[in-house]
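Practice problem 4.
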């Protein structure tokens, strides 16, 4: 495989601030140092990151260069891959120490006999800490280019913590539906589609009928299938949002769709049941679209693009 090499120099009289800033940036990008140069795998996002660093170095009156190389003379490909994994192992170890602190705090909470209000506050504090750990884990996964084995260990511990702090609700039984029975229907939902409806629209066009007719109104016409509406065929059931109901109804429960469903669920219901680092950013983006007064068609177009990109990202992460 090919590698991207970044080399730079700053003026000898430059303050330590640019050097420290650059070192921190390289660390956040997941680069490793080999023989005095910084290395990343040859990927488009890594190349763009290095190119931005070149501009920053030159703005600081320094020199920088990015090169693409096929191999290093004195180091094989697997040796370099192992160096990346070792770097991420250190990152996971740091995160593991923080996970251990939360595990200890959770045990202490279970053993404590404090007043109810104090217990609730401590539980909320642990939830905030858990959310930060999930974000930290996602940041490491973003630069774990070669799947360090330690990622699965941390993921399992975070999963157990999440289950302990956010117990799953009762399972909701959803009647199965045949996709081929819905490939020629016309769909209806309320105007000004937001997160749940936009996700459903994407699901319809992605898995049922890419050319489906979707109308926005509050009153259904004969033959229309309404969704996310009080009298709709597909709507909230139990603690499931409409998107989750449609996914279960059509038997589309793969790992990427499960993650999408959890993100949509949290933005729509805000019950703190699921923790994903993408949630707050997607929520802010969707609220911004509503504030911008986009038309229903514009919201639909942007929503489909958003959830398609998110689905592809989740597919890659869960592969």
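Answer key:
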């Amino acid at each position: 495989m090919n590698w991207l090499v970044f080399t730079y120099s700053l003026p000898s009289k430059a303050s330590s601030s640019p050097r420290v800033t650059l070192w921190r940036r390289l660390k956040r990008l997941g680069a490793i140092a080999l023989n005095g140069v910084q290395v990343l795998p040859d990927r488009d996002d890594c190349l763009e990151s290095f190119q931005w660093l070149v501009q920053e170095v030159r703005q600081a009156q320094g020199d920088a260069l990015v090169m693409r190389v096929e191999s290093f003379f004195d180091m094989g490909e697997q040796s370099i891959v192992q160096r990346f994994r070792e770097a991420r192992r250190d990152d996971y170890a740091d995160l593991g120490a923080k996970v251990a602190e939360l595990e200890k705090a959770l045990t202490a909470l279970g053993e404590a006999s404090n007043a109810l209000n104090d217990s609730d506050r401590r539980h909320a504090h642990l939830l905030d800490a858990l959310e930060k750990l999930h974000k930290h884990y996602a940041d490491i996964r973003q630069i774990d280019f070669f799947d360090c084995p330690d990622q699965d260990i941390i993921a399992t511990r975070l999963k157990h913590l999440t289950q302990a702090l956010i117990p799953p609700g009762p399972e909701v039984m959803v009647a199965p539906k045949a996709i081929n029975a819905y490939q020629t229907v016309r769909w209806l939902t309320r105007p000004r589609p937001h997160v749940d409806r936009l996700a459903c629209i994407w699901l319809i066009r992605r898995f049922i009928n890419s050319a489906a007719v979707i109308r926005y109104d509050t009153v259904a016409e004969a033959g229309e299938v309404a969704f996310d509406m009080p009298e709709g065929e597909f709507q909230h059931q139990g603690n499931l949002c409409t998107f989750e109901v449609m996914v279960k109804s059509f038997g589309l429960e793969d790992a990427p769709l499960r993650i999408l469903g959890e993100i949509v669920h949290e933005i729509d219901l805000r019950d703190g049941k699921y923790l994903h680092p993408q949630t707050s950013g997607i929520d802010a983006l969707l609220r911004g679209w509503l504030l911008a007064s986009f038309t229903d068609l514009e919201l639909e177009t942007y929503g489909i693009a958003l959830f398609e990109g998110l689905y592809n990202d989740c597919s890659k992460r869960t592969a």
